[in-house]
Amino acid sequence: MTKKYAALLRGINVGGSKKVPMAELRALLEGLGHGDVQTYLQSGNAVFSSAKKDPGRLARELEKTIEAHFGFRVACLVVDGAYLRAVADACPFPAAELEGKQLHATFFSEQPGAERFAALDEAAYLPEEYRLGDHVLYLYAPNGLGRSKLAEALAKPAVVKGIDATTRNWNTVAKLVELTAV
Fold first, then answer.
1. CB neighbours of 127 closer than 8 A, spacing ≥ 6?
2. Among 15, 95, 96, 163, which residue's CB has the most CB atoms within a 10 Å radius?
3. What DSSP line would sit under 35-91, residue for residue?
């Protein structure tokens, strides 16, 4: 029995570095034996089906394949459709009332402990806010991610060191939920 997964690649096709054409990414995923392969946008989102059940192993296989093919490492997170649905359902912010650019989800390779965020003075960043979920951080940035001081603080090494993390706006999260639905 196959499951639907989303592969979230970190930091590709941004600013002219780490170019990964989506057609080549689709071919690499198909070469790994995955089916129903699709990509979404140019920023490293792929959806596929696989009989394999270990998302961590799927991510490591994809990372190795990308490095062998392109010559550089790309952090990959692989999550299944049920997890993406749970992330959307657990959103602590009123997603339906916000623009997609105001709400973001940062996906983590491992669950960060609350101690990583202890030094953050949340009140200093208002009206921006964040909440931790299951391997995900929800970020409300009313003026968008590019202007967010809180996003900048959350990306500092003290918070994310040793954890692979990649962020998607809420429109992308919603589309990936749709594409991985069974």
1. 140, 142
2. 95
3. EEEEEETTTTEEEEEES---HHHHHHHHHHHHHHHHSS---EEEEEHHHHHHHHHT-
